[in-house]
Structures are given as C-alpha cells and as structure tokens.
C-alpha cells in the first residue's frame, strides 16, 4: 500500500485575526468549544492513516508547541514516524533559499527519510473533515503530477475573496490558478504530490531564486505539469478574518452543520484536559449553546459557545458570543456579539455589545 506523509505548512498563512493572533499564530486559535484550528489538519491526516507529520512554523509558535506536545492526542508519540514541529533553523551558511522554500530546504531530511511515497501538504485555515486516502486513489487513477483539493462554493462569502481559485477542464484537469473573485472553485491550500517530484521541484525552485513552493514550483509551471483537481464535498469553513471566525464558529450551533463536520467515524481530536462536567446552577438558563466541560453557569446564555472552564455569574446575559477558556463573567454583565479570548474577566454590570457583522473582540487576559 502506498503511504502518505503529511506537511502542515504555516509559513505563508497571515495572522489576520487581529486580537486573537496577538499572542499566537492562526493555527493555534481556539475553535469550536474545545479545539484549535490545527486540530482539523492533524486529525484529517491521522484519520487518513498518515503516521508521519511535520509542522512548518515560523513565528508565534510557542502556544502551538504547547498544544501539540509530542502528538499524544493523535497517537503520534511513536518510535517510527510521529509528529515533528519544525520551527526555523537557518544554520546552513550556503543556504540561498527564501520564503517557505527555506522550510523545505532546511527540513529536507524529513522528506528524504520518510518511508512514504507521497507527500500531502496542507495549511490550517480551511476547516474540514476529509479522507486523504480518497484523494490518493483519484491521484493515482488520473496519473496526475499534483492533485489539488478544492471546494465548489455556492455563495461567495467575503473570506473567499482572497482565496485562490481554479479554472478546471471537464476531465478535472486544472487550466489556471488565480484570484478571480467570482470563480466558485476555491482552492483549499491542500495538495498531494509524489515525494520524488516534490524533492526535484524544491531544488529547481531554489536554484532559480524563487521563494514560494506552491506558487513558483507548481502553479507557475502550468500547463507543463498535470495538475488534477479533487472536489471536496463535505463541511467546509475558511477562517482568515475575525468576521469569518465568528460566522463559522456560530454556524456550529446549527446541528446539521455541526454533525457534518464532527463525524463519529472520523473524529476531530485535540489535547486532552481532564475537567469536571459543567454545572448549571439554580436559576441558570441556557439555550442553543455549545458548552465545554468545566463551566459553571448561573446566568442566561443563548446562541453562544463556551469553552472549558468559563464562569457565568448570576444575572449575567450572554448572547451570540464566543467565550474562550477560563473567562470569568461577573454578575449582571451583558455580552452580545462578543468574542472573548482566554482568561478574560468581565466586571460586574459591564455591558459589551458588538454587531453580527463586526463582533466586539477582547484580547487574551484582559479585564473589562
């Protein structure tokens, strides 16, 4: 059986979530009540029987390393393969690589030593639940050089404006990759390539002074290389702004959207934290809300997401909000259309109200 190794390339992902990425990279941002953004990429790979995964990280990766640890939550703390977090290490004085090609060049040993035949490269901003073995099957059937994964969207949401799009022929061969606003074929920043071809393309791209592997070594070589488009048809969310983060988070309150993303047969895994079940005190009122473990709720919570260890005081009102780990909402406080980062404290009687299209965001550890 052909094996796949995974690379989660965070190098070219911009930290566009404002206050939520002051102290962390985008891949480490909490999402969905108990997860981090990167959990979806790692879980998709391990559910697809990928046992060797490298993470290319350049900046603000301390929180990411703390979360991933040795990969135990995904059964990646193993003797063969496993999880490799590879921050910058530019100690080669002869190195002429630039951009994310530095990561491929300086970590080429990971690619050479893996027993895999294929490399699956992914980012962290596209939230989905995908089986990469199906991608490999189609890749081999079409005899493609590279298979890129895309989602055909029915509505052109603002987050798709900056995403790359695909022009696709009838046989699913990619004709062009561009940023045309109205094209519905959204490239999901995931592609599959044979290990030997990736190695050759990296060396050629560096030799020609390029800086971005996908753009310079793959996209700009069309139509010389055969790029096949694999259509992903499952649950999908692109998170590249505060507004898209808020919208896609609150979409999980719809049971059909939640169940499409979180499948029993392909679970999304995360770092385990042992906490007591949540407590709903006398007089509390909770409606249509995702509540993680360890919360204590005395007030009114509606259409919201509470992460682990949140405390909601008596008489407090929370509506249409995302409240991250260990936030403390005092008695009588009112929050509506708000995102609170971890460890925030909202004082007694304080009122914070944002707009559905522009939520009010409070940075980590703030007291209001």
TrEMBL record:
Chain ranges of the Nucleotidyl transferase domain: 18-155
Matches recorded under Gene3D superfamilies: Hexapeptide repeat proteins (2.160.10.10), Spore Coat Polysaccharide Biosynthesis Protein SpsA, Chain A (3.90.550.10)
Domain Glucose-1-phosphate adenylyltransferase/Bifunctional protein GlmU-like C-terminal hexapeptide: start-end pairs: 284-354
InterPro entries: ADP-Glc_PPase, GlgDAde_trans, GlmU/GlgC-like_hexapep, NTP_transferase_dom, Nucleotide-diphossugar_trans, Trimer_LpxA-like_sf
Superkingdom classification of source: Bacteria
Molecular functions (GO terms): glucose-1-phosphate adenylyltransferase activity
Keywords from the UniProt entry: Glycogen biosynthesis, Nucleotidyltransferase, Transferase
EC number: 2.7.7.27
Family named by the database record: Belongs to the bacterial/plant glucose-1-phosphate adenylyltransferase family.
Name by which UniProt lists this protein: Glucose-1-phosphate adenylyltransferase subunit GlgD
Organism: Pontibacillus chungwhensis
Lineage of source species: Bacteria, Bacillati, Bacillota, Bacilli, Bacillales
Gene, per the UniProt record: glgD
């Amino acid at each position: 059986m052909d094996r796949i190794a995974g690379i989660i390339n965070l190098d070219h992902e911009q930290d566009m979530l404002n206050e939520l990425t002051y102290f962390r990279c985008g891949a480490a941002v909490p999402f969905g009540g108990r997860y981090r953004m990167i959990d979806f990429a790692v879980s998709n790979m391990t559910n697809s029987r990928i046992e060797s995964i490298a993470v290319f990280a350049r900046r603000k990766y301390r929180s990411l390393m703390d979360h991933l640890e040795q990969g135990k939550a995904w059964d990646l703390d193993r003797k063969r393969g496993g999880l490799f977090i590879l921050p910058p290490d530019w100690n080669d004085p002869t190195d002429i690589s630039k951009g994310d090609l530095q990561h491929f060049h300086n970590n080429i040993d990971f690619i050479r030593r893996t027993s895999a035949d294929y490399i699956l490269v992914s980012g962290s901003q596209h939230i989905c639940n995908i089986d990469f073995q199906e991608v490999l099957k189609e890749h081999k059937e079409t005899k493609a050089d590279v298979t890129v994964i895309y989602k055909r969207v029915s509505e052109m949401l603002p987050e798709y404006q900056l995403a790359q799009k695909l022009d696709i022929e009838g046989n699913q061969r990619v004709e062009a990759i561009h940023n045309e606003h109205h094209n519905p074929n959204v490239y999901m920043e995931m592609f599959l390539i044979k290990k030997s071809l990736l190695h050759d393309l990296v060396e050629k791209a560096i030799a020609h002074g390029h800086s971005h592997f996908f753009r310079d070594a793959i996209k700009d070589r069309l139509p010389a290389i055969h790029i096949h488009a694999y259509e992903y048809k499952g649950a999908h969310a692109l998170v590249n702004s505060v507004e898209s983060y808020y919208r896609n988070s609150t979409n999980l309150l719809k049971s059909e959207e939640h169940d499409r993303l979180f499948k029993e047969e392909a679970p999304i895994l995360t770092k385990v934290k042992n906490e007591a079940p949540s407590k709903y005190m006398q007089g509390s009122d909770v409606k249509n809300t995702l509540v993680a473990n360890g919360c204590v709720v005395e007030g009114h919570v509606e259409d919201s997401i509470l992460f682990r260890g949140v405390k909601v005081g008596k008489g407090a009102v929370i509506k249409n909000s995302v409240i991250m780990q260990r936030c403390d909402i005092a008695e009588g406080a009112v929050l509506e259309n708000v995102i609170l980062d971890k460890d925030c404290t909202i004082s007694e009687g304080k009122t914070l109200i944002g707009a559905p299209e522009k939520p009010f965001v409070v940075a980590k550890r703030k007291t209001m």
